[in-house]
Amino acid sequence: MRLLRRFFIRLSNFITGRRADQRLREEMAEHLALQTQENLRAGMSPTEARRQAALKLGAAQAIREQHNAEQGLPIAENLLLDIRYAFRMLHRSPVFSLIAIATIALGVGATTAIYSVIDATLLHPLPYPHPSELVRLEANLPGVGARDIGISIPELRDLQNSGIFQYVSLSFFGTNNLTGSAQPASIASKSVTPAYFAVLGVDAAMGRTFDPHDATPGFNNEVVISDGLWKRAFGADPHILGKTLRLDNDPAHVVGVMPASFRDQGQSSEQRGTDLWAAGGFADDPAPPPMRGTRLPFETIARLQPGLSPEAAQGRLDALVASLKKQYPADYPPQGAWTLHLTPLAETLVGNVRQSLILLFGAVGLVLLISCVNVANLLLARASARGREMAVRQALGAARTRLIRQLLTESLLLFVLGGIAGFAVLFCARKFLLQFVPESLPRLNDISIGWGVLAFAIVVSVAAGTIFGLAPAWLTSRLNLTATLRQEGRGSNGSRRRSRLRHALVIGELALSLVLMVAAGLLLRSFWDLFKVQLGFNPTRVMAIETSLPNPNDPKTDIYGTATQEAVLLREVLRRNRTIPGVEETAVSDQAAIPLGHGQSDRRTVPFLREGQEVQSTQPPLIDALIVSPEYFHVLGMTLVRGRLFVDQDLEATPLVAVINQAAARMYWPGKDGKGEDPVGKRVRLLGLLGRARPEWTTIVCVIADARTESLADPGIPQVYLDIYQHPFKFLAFYLRGQVDPAAISAQVRTQIQAVDPELPIYRAETLDDVLSSSLSVRRFSMEMVAFFAATALLLAALGIYGTISFLVNEQSREIAIRLALGAQRRDILRMVLRQGLTLAAAGAGVGLVGALIVSHLMTGLLYGVSPYDLSTFAGVTAALTAVAIAASYVPALRAMRLDPITTLHAE
Amino acid sequence: MKEKPDVLQGTLALMVLKTLDVLGPRHGWGIARRIEQISGDLLAVNQGTLYPLLLKLEHEGSIASQWGASENNRRARFYHLTAAGRKQLQAETREWEQTAAIIARFFEVKAKDLS
Average model confidence (pLDDT) for chain A? Predict the structure, then answer.
């Protein structure tokens, strides 16, 4: 308490600059006067009395200093002096300061940029209260290798009553046609059970969300809309609540508008951009009757009871699963081994980008390290120039700790200025930089350059400044006084130690850049291999334009309910699209069939049975099902292997037909001898296709060559293609092949489609080349960033080696001059200097190769088609690094070679 | 320059407080003189060191000061004990007595008492 009071008074004196000099002087004068009087009384002569009084008082100057120190805060005063001096030093060598600050700004700025991405995605992936309570539930049948099979309504009720969760909710993502506004629009929507917002713990900004205890079995016709939709489609109408929208021709009442800051959770950017939520019980029309075995393909999220850890919850969930299996043995056959698996929601959202982001953070960390090393190197170089200054100050009585404090203040000032500069550049360029971040990154819109990021930048700068300023400060202040003063800093014991440290720093820098370059090289190779892969289809000059048909809850009101009804629309739109100038061919498919597309249903995997192999007791195998029109294969240039493609005579009433790819043929019709049997003519039953209550036999009529339409990296995914005229589907993509203008085509197609049905929305017109390239976006992003960091690292390392060799040449100029004067060849001098550079490069490469091997091993999961120990990459990168090192040493070497011995020796 | 050992500093502060407690408001010289009379040569030289200490005690809130007239009718700074200072003095006196008693007992102990 007393200490605190004293500190604050001193602090306020320090800040206000108040001094008590006058008071002390008066007090001391009075003291002297009184003492002199006393002495006089004791019988001294006046002179003697004054002298004795002064002696008794003590050294006035020392007392004044002590008094002054007590008055203010000497540490703060010294710091202020140090900072003022440091600024003066920066000002005195502006080039040095500018280079150092720019280098640090680069390192800290880049690190901070990546940190801001990681902060938004990995550290705060869920913008909801108590995010650790949120989990995602997945039902699996590990016995037959089936994952995420969905959940039934009775199971949902069991979960709700289990006491493990506060709330459980199902959701199904899709798109709806919103009609009634100026243009029919397709909006991202989620059909959810009423507890959805209760699980997330978010309330509406206007109106309300759904009542979590609403037990309406079917849809309750209430919808909540996003702030974005409210502003976009309804002009921020303040009386929106209670109004009726038309969604896929069904009426729905708006009961709430979410806050502007609310973003839905989900793995894809489409899901996170959900604009509308509709509530339903999914236990009545249009959903099937709530039977235990009728699993809905929904996503299940839940909020755990407070304080319950995911591990403990999983334990209780396992117990629940066991008791349900005992209670309903018919619904959970033992060979399926039904399980419920719980994952923290945050993990499911960032899983696929975590590795890329960690790689980037590692890469940027190396760049930061290299830039710090470079600055430390610069500081060391300056140390030898300041040897004399240090010696003089030490000779005048400065303590070594005082000198270190001074030097550390200088380097900290450099680092903090650099950090602030880096942050400032980042802050000003944030809009520009965010363009480069791929859209598929979760929580892209939440990346912000705010106080937290600024704090990170400053902490990083201060930490780096302390670590990398300490060694140079230590070595600078450690010197042999007399030697330095006598030799005028021509090189002493301290400088040898300094140059050893400088060599180590440069070697470290080279090693780190080699690691980064190898990582970049491997990523580049993978990317290139993926880019050059044989696609099996031809995306050039093909555009895909998406539309969707209304899907009303009451099937009787669906004007496109049957394949025959839909065929009329499709054939008319295709005919009209062919009339658009430049269009050569057209086709239509469901959105999942867009090659490498990112439609609302990423992949539709359905179970199927083969004729003659239907064993009821086992879970049927799975296959990717795609629904296409007959022209699809030709528009995309896919190769027929055997059989016949779809023809116009395949209709709703004719027997169902299917096309499979070679991967499916290989996997499911391997033949008895393993050579493969001809699947053409075989029959299958596809289960779980929407719109088909009872699966009929489908005859395989054709095998086509494998194409990488699902995944660039995986060539052999089994696929079955079905005829769109036999399987009506609501979410459609029209393809146009030919010479069309991508900018105008959207409007042209809209005119054609809306001439047939004015209520159909048109969205996402893209060339397949663009679809292909955006499917590589995360890979491209991380490759480009790592390549950029590697280039930066190489540049910094080159600067580092250049600086070191220049310094060596300067230090050895006397020696070189003597050698030249004694008749050494200039070529020898060149070779001597280059050899020093090469030695450093070789040592750096050696250390770097070991590091690169470790890092590339860790990166295996991010590579495609290239071994993590790819010899050509390692060799190429090492060669490049060596070449750069030699080039960087060449300039100072040339200078050494051209040294004039006479002038040099005179100057010394 | 060697700093005075902490014990001495602490003792000096205690002496200042006690002086002000016994004699009431005093100026610097008065305090110095009083301490010199009692403690002998502790303040025989370097009476000036008293002033930084007085400032410190004032910062800590144990004493306060204002200008007043001295014996020879000149302006002098008079120090007096505050309530907090009195409390501090009592506490420290108690502590000091305890310490002194322990030390004294320690010195009284002879080798044969321990065996």
Answer: 85
Cα separation, A815 vs A495, in Å, equals 16
Closest C-alpha among A61, A26, A71, A42 to residue B29? A26
Give the span between the Cα atoms of A783 and A527, in whole angstroms: 8
**Facing residues of A609 across strands?**
A685
Contact B28 A27 (CB under 8 A): yes
- Which chain B residues are within 8 Å of A2, Cβ to Cβ? 60-62, 84, 88
Alpha-helix runs per DSSP H in B24-82: 28-39, 50-60
3-state SS string for A536-558 = CCCCCCEEEEEEECCCCCCHHHC
Does A30 sit within 8 Å of B74, measured CB to CB? Answer: yes
Q: List the helix and strand counts (H, then E) for chain A.
A: 28, 21
Nearest CA among A599, A607, A598, A643 for reference residue A625: A607
DSSP B77: E
The ipTM is 0.82
Among residues A520, A861, A525, A537, which one has the least CA distance to residue A712?
Answer: A537
- Contact between A164 and A316 under an 8 Å Cβ cutoff? The reply is yes
Instruction: Determine the Cα angle at A625 with ends A660 and A684, to 5°.
Output: 60
Q: What mean pLDDT comes out for the span A639-655?
A: 89
Residue closest to A340 by CA, chosen among A204, A140, A188, A161: A140
Q: Given pLDDT bands bounded at 50, 70 and 90, which one contains residue A908? A: low
> Does the bond joining A286 to the residue before it have cis omega, within 30 degrees of 0?
yes
CA of B112 vs chain A CAs: smallest distance (Å): 45
Among A881, A904, A893, A879, CA closest to A805: A893
Phi-psi region of A236 (alpha: psi -120 to 50; beta: other; left: phi over 0): left
Work out the number of other CB atoms within 10 angstroms of the CB of residue A702: 20
For chain B, what is the radius of gyration of the CA atoms?
17
Give residue limits of the domains in chain B.
Answer: 6-114
Q: Where are the domains of chain A?
A: 2-72, 142-337, 353-531+777-907, 551-758
Sorting pLDDT into bands at 50, 70 and 90, what band is A662? very high
| A42 min Cα distance to partner chain B (Å) | 14
pLDDT tens across A148-183, in order?
888 888 899 999 999 899 999 999 888 888 876 667
Burial of A306 (0-12, 13-18, 19+ CB in 10 A): exposed
In our burial notation (b when 16+ CB lie closer than 10 A, e otherwise), range A543-571 reads: bbbbbbbbbbbeeeebebbebeebbebbe
Query: Whose structure tokens read 């999942």?
Result: A592
Residue A690: what residue type? L
Closest residue in chain A to residue B78, using alpha carbons only: A27
**Residue A298, pLDDT above cutoff 60:** yes
CATH number 3.90.180.10 is the correct assignment for the domain at B6-114: no
Answer whether A5 sits within 8 Å of B60, measured CB to CB. Answer: yes
Digit-coded pLDDT (tens) for A395-430: 887 888 888 888 888 889 999 999 999 999 988 888
Q: At what angle do helices A94-118 and A451-477 cross, to 10 degrees?
A: 140
pLDDT value of residue A493? 47
The separation between the first and the last C-alpha atoms of chain A, rounded to the nearest angstrom, is 62
CB pair distance less than 8 Å for B48 and A59? yes
DSSP 8-class letter at A746: H
From the CA of B6, how many Å to the nearest CA of chain A? 15
* C-alpha to C-alpha distance for A872 and A879, rounded to whole angstroms: 10
Q: Are A848 and A514 in contact (CB under 8 A)?
A: yes
Q: How far, in Å, CA of A808 to CA of A575, rounded?
A: 78
Whether residues A34 and B70 touch (CB distance < 8 A) is answered with yes
How far does chain B reach from its first CA to its final CA, in angstroms? Answer: 46
Measured between alpha carbons, how far is A741 from B62 in angstroms, rounded to an integer? 88
- In chain B, residues with a C-beta closer than 8 Å to the C-beta of A57 are 46-48
